[in-house]
Fold Putative addiction module antidote.
Amino acid sequence: MVELKVRKVGNSLGTVFPREALDRLKLREGDRVFLTETPDGYRVTPYDPEFERQMELAEEGMAAYRNTLRALAT
């Protein structure tokens, strides 16, 4: 577990990630991250444009073959 402290940044609030967390998440200055609510709390994940593209393709495929996938699932 890594403790983060919320600090005032201009008129907003922000937090500073320690180097070990940045290295583990493979984050660099200017990268985008997502804060996702899960049943266990919140999760911080890096933005991965390749994963987003793959998910869009998968969703298109699932939509195109919805009836076939439904039949295979039964």
User: Anything to note?
Assistant: Helices lie at 19-25, 49-64, 66-73. The chain has one domain: 6-73. The two ends are 42 Å apart (CA to CA). DSSP finds three helices and four strands in the chain.
